[in-house]
């Protein structure tokens, strides 16, 4: 049986041979089963977002292999990996086209990977499907399908981006601090929507977060990174019984107390 994701001994060094040389990934190994929802935490520069960028092909890794559902994608360019992946970024402006309306954005997501033709119109059936999907968000957006996305709030945009990222049932959904730019109440709503979409579509997902409470509360597995390596990997009952103090203790142990000034301590 193929894993949903295999990362084998992946290394990445930025600015090699210069005074700014930085080891971003230092032999990362990770296997995800289909349906795993993994939260990833760690200090600034721990390698969390770098891991997601390595999977997405934002730049080539120096060594190692990345395999999605049995397909080795290590050598594929970013645009060819898109068929396997859905991704939601920290900035709510990133995942949608602000000057297009909601239904047009959803149509683009719906047709991702298909041949482009001159026939662009949205069919009645598509419109009905979009309306049903939007209604599941509980934000009333199904009544605003011709509203320009640029007029929506950050939380509304992230909710739509989540829908768009999951429409084609990607092999892997990457959530890169996708609630960090939102106020706490809106962030909680977007996380609730994330849980629902991942569960209902039986998606495999990875969520990078700085918020330890969120990392504990969501998903079935938690990974902690430090200096480009995975230093802690917990799942099931053990994860459900975790508390923030347990994670802080792990950070202290791994970093020799370096985390005292980390932004994560404030969450």
Annotation keywords:
267 residues; 23% strand; six-stranded mixed beta sheet; 9 helices; alpha/beta; four-stranded antiparallel beta sheet; Rossmann fold; 33% helix; disordered C terminus; globular
Coarse shape: globular
What does the main sheet amount to? Answer: 6 strands, mixed
Radius of gyration: 19 Å
As residue ranges, the low-confidence spans are 263-267
Count all strands and give the number: 10
Counting H and I runs of at least 4 residues, what is the number of helices?
9
Strand content: 15-25%
The H-and-E topology, N to C, reads as: EEEHEEHEHHHEHEHEEHH
CATH superfamily of the largest domain: P-loop containing nucleotide triphosphate hydrolases
Find the structural class using helix and strand composition: alpha/beta
Name of the CATH architecture of the largest domain: 3-Layer(aba) Sandwich
Could you please describe the fold and organization of this structure?
The relative contact order is 0.18. The strands form 2 sheets. The chain has a 6-stranded mixed β-sheet, sandwiched between helices. A 4-stranded antiparallel β-sheet has the order 2-1-4-5, with helices on one face. 33% of the residues lie in helices and 23% in strands. The protein folds into 2 domains: 5-84 and 173-266, P-loop containing nucleotide triphosphate hydrolases (Rossmann fold, 3-Layer(aba) Sandwich); 98-169, no CATH class. Residues 263-267 have low confidence and may be disordered. The protein has helices at residues 48-56, 78-81, 102-110, 124-135, 154-166, 184-200, 212-217, 236-240, 244-255; strands at residues 5-14, 22-32, 37-42, 63-68, 71-72, 85-88, 172-176, 205-208, 221-226, 229-235. With 267 residues, it is α/β, with parallel strands linked by helices. α3 runs parallel beside α5 and α5 packs parallel to α6.
């Amino acid at each position: 049986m193929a894993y949903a994701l295999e990362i084998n001994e992946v290394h990445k060094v930025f600015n090699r041979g210069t005074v700014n040389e930085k080891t971003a990934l230092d032999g990362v190994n990770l296997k995800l089963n289909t349906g795993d929802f993994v939260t990833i935490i760690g200090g600034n520069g721990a390698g969390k977002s770098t891991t997601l960028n390595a999977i997405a092909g934002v730049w080539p890794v120096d060594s190692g292999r990345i395999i999605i559902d049995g397909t080795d994608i290590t050598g594929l360019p970013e645009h060819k990996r898109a068929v396997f992946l859905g991704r939601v970024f920290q900035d709510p402006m990133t995942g949608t086209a602000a000057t297009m309306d909601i239904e047009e954005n959803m149509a683009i997501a719906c047709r991702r990977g298909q041949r482009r033709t001159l026939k662009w119109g949205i069919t009645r059936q598509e419109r009905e499907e979009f309306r049903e999907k939007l209604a599941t968000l509980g934000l009333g957006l199904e009544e605003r399908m011709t509203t320009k996305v640029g007029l929506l709030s950050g939380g509304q945009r992230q909710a739509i981006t989540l829908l768009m990222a999951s429409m084609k049932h990607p092999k892997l959904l990457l959530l890169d601090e996708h609630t960090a730019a939102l106020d706490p109440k809106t962030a909680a709503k977007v996380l609730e929507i994330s849980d629902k979409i991942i569960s209902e579509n039986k998606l495999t997902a990875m969520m990078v977060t700085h918020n330890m409470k969120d990392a504990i509360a969501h998903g079935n597995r938690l990974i902690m990174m430090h200096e480009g390596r995975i230093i802690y990997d917990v799942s099931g009952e053990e994860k459900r019984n975790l508390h923030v103090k347990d994670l802080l203790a792990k950070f202290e142990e791994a970093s020799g107390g370096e985390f005292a000034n980390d932004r994560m301590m404030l969450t």
